[in-house]
Specification:
This protein has 106 residues and is of the alpha+beta class. The protein contains four helices and four strands, in the order E-H-H-H-E-E-E-H.
Length: 106
């Protein structure tokens, strides 16, 4: 699903979102504000993913059922609600995802 340029004009970042972007991406506030527009515009939605990444993504999403949008960009998953960035998660490598599922019996 390609988003239009005007879709990201009202993207905001909550305080927790800024903390996670600093902690996990190393972005300061100015960089976060600039990059989050690229993330929202160019990132991938869950229906565009395949294989192990889609499986991990769908299992992660079960815990956050009230969230509007998940977007994958680079090695991170960004979580939005009403066009406000809530948090960012680092996506584990393929081998780590396999270990997680093997432990849980998937």
């Amino acid at each position: 699903m390609k988003r239009e340029r005007n879709d990201y004009s009202s993207i905001q970042i909550c305080d927790h979102g800024y903390e996670r972007l600093k902690e996990r991406n190393g972005w300061n506030k100015k960089t976060a504000e600039r990059m989050i527009n690229k993330v929202y515009l160019n990132g991938k939605h869950p229906d565009e993913l395949k294989g192990y990444l889609k499986q991990w993504f769908l299992n992660k999403g079960r815990y956050e059922s009230e969230i509007d949008e998940y977007i994958v960009y680079g090695d991170y998953m960004y979580v939005f609600k009403n066009k406000v960035l809530i948090t960012a998660y680092n996506i584990p490598c393929r081998e780590r995802i396999k270990q997680i599922y093997k432990k849980r019996g998937y």
